[in-house]
Amino acid sequence: MSEPVYLTRAPHASGPALEESLARAAQGDQQAFARVYDAVAGQVLGVVRAVLRDPAQSEEVAQEVLVEVWRTAARFRPDRGSAMAWVMTIAHRRAVDRVRSAQAASDRERRAAVLDHAPAFDEVTEQVEHRLEREQVRRCLQGLTERQRQSVTLAYYRGLTHREVAQLLQLPLGTVKTRLRDGLIRLRDCLGVTA
Amino acid sequence: MNPRTGPGPGTAELHALSGAYALHALSGPERTAFERHVSACPPCAQEVRELTATAARLGGAVAVEPPPELRARVLRRITAVRQEPPRVPRQPPGPAGDVRAGSRRLPGLLLAACAAGLLLVSGVAVWQHREADQARRQAAETAAAQQEVMSVLAAPDARMTGGPLPGGGKGTVVVSSSADRAVFLASGLPQPPDGMVYQLWFDDAGTMRPAGLLQPEHDGGTEAMLMDGALGRAAGMGITVEPAGGSREPSSEPLAVLPFPAPAA
C-alpha cells in the first residue's frame, strides 16, 4: 500500500463502526461483540500488561475487562466519549485496582522497583496501525516537560496514585496534581483529542 | 494548618484533580469527593471527558498482540454471562456513570451548598452599595468562607448526619476531621422570634462551645454555615435560640442535638 498515512486521527478514533458494534452487543449480539473484541483486545491487554507486568495475570485481568464490556455494554453513552475511551477506562481502572490490592504487602519493594522499569513501550505489537498510534503518542509525550512526562507515565503506566508519585519523586502533592493535569491537557491538545 | 495532611481540598484544588482522576491516580475517597465535585460542575465534567479520552490514548500506545486463546476464552465466557439491561435514566448519572447508591445523597448536598453560595454572593451585591473597602473585605471573607465550606463538604473524610428540626426545617451537619471543621446546612429554617437568633454549639463532652450565629436570610432557603472554631474532639453539635448577639452558654433547651457520626474505621 502506498497510500499516504495521516497521523491526525488515531486508528481507533475512526470508531463509528466500533460504537455500532458495541450498541449491538448491548442487545445481546455475540457476533457484534466479537467485532468489539477484535477492535479493542490488543489495547486492553496492552494497558493491563503495562500496569501489571505479569503476563499470566494480565491475561486474566484482560479477560475480566472484556467480559465486563459485554456485561455492561448498555452503560456505554456515546455522548460522553468514544467507545474505545470507555473500554480503555475500564481496562486501566481494573488493572490499577488489581495492582493496588496486590501491593499492600510488597509496598516498599514495589516503590523501590518501580522507577527501574523500562518504559512500557518496548513490548508492543508491531502491527502498523498500533505502531503509528504509538509513535504519535510518544511524540506527544516528548512535547511534555520532563517532569510532566515522568508524573503522567508513572501514574498511567505504573498505576501509582498521585500520592505515590509525589512520594517517589519527593514532590509536594499539589505539584504532582498540577503536573498530571497540565501534562494531560498538553497531550490532549497534541493528540487532538475531542470528547 | 499542617500542609501534609492539610484541610480537605477546596473547589479550586478539587478542580486540579481532573488529571489525577482521569489517570485513576486518586484513592477511593478522593475519587468519590472529586466525582461529587464534578457532578455539580458541568465545565469540569467536560474537562474530565477530554482528559479521560486522552488517557485512553496512552493505553492505545502500548497495544500488544493478544493470544488467540484469549479470544476463544472470552467469546466462550460471554455466552454464560448475563448482560445488564439498559438503564432507564432516572437522574443524570455521575461522571463515571457508576455512582453508587451510598454516595447519591452528597451531590444533592453539594447543590444545596451551591445554592447557599448563591445567597452569599447575592449578599455581596448588596454590600457593594456600601463603602467600597468594606465591601471588598467582606466579599473576600465571604469567598474564603465559601471556600472553607466547600473544602469541608468535599473532604475525603467528610461525614454527615442530620434530620428534621422540631420548629420546622431540616438541619444537616457535615464534619471533616482532616479539615478539623464542621459545616451546618439548614434548609427551611423559620425566622427566629424577634430579637432572637439561632446559635450553634459544639458539644465537647457535655460542655457546649459557641460555634456561631445563624440568621436565616429568608424562610425556606438553604444555608451553609462554616461553624466557628475547630472541630477538635467535639462529639456533636447543638442548635439553640438565643437573644440577638448570642450567648456564652446555651440559655435555653436546644432545638436539636446532633451527635456526629463516628469516623470510618
Structural write-up:
Chain A: Pfam families: Sigma70_r2, Sigma70_r4_2. Chain A: Belongs to the sigma-70 factor family. ECF subfamily. The complex is a heterodimer of chains A (about 200) and B (about 260). Chain A contains nine helices and no strands. With about 200 residues, chain A is mostly helical. Chain A is about 70% helix and about 0% strand. With about 260 residues, chain B is of the alpha+beta class. Mean pLDDT of chain B is about 75; it is low at about 1-10 and about 90-130. Chain B starts with 10 loop residues before the first helix and ends in a 6-residue tail after the last strand. In chain B, strand 4 (about 195-205) and strand 5 form a beta hairpin. Chain B has a domain at about 160-260. Helix content of chain B is about 35%, strand content about 20%. In chain B, helix 6 packs antiparallel against helix 7 (about 130-155). In chain B, the strands form two sheets. In chain B, strands 1-2-3-6 form a four-stranded antiparallel sheet, with helices on one face. The chains are: A mainly alpha (about 200), B alpha+beta (about 260). At the A-B interface, helix 2, helix 3, helix 4, helix 6 and helix 7 of A face helix 2, helix 4 and helix 5 of B.
Brief summary:
Chain A: It comes from Streptomyces aidingensis. The complex is a heterodimer of chains A (195) and B (265). Chain A has 195 residues and is mostly helical.
Low-confidence stretches of chain A: 1-14, 115-125
> Quick one: how many beta strands of chain A?
0
Percentage of residues in helical conformation of chain A: 55-70%
What proportion of the residues of chain A form beta strands (DSSP E)? under 5%
Total number of helical segments of chain A? 9
Biggest protein-protein contact in the assembly: A-B, 82 and 50 residues
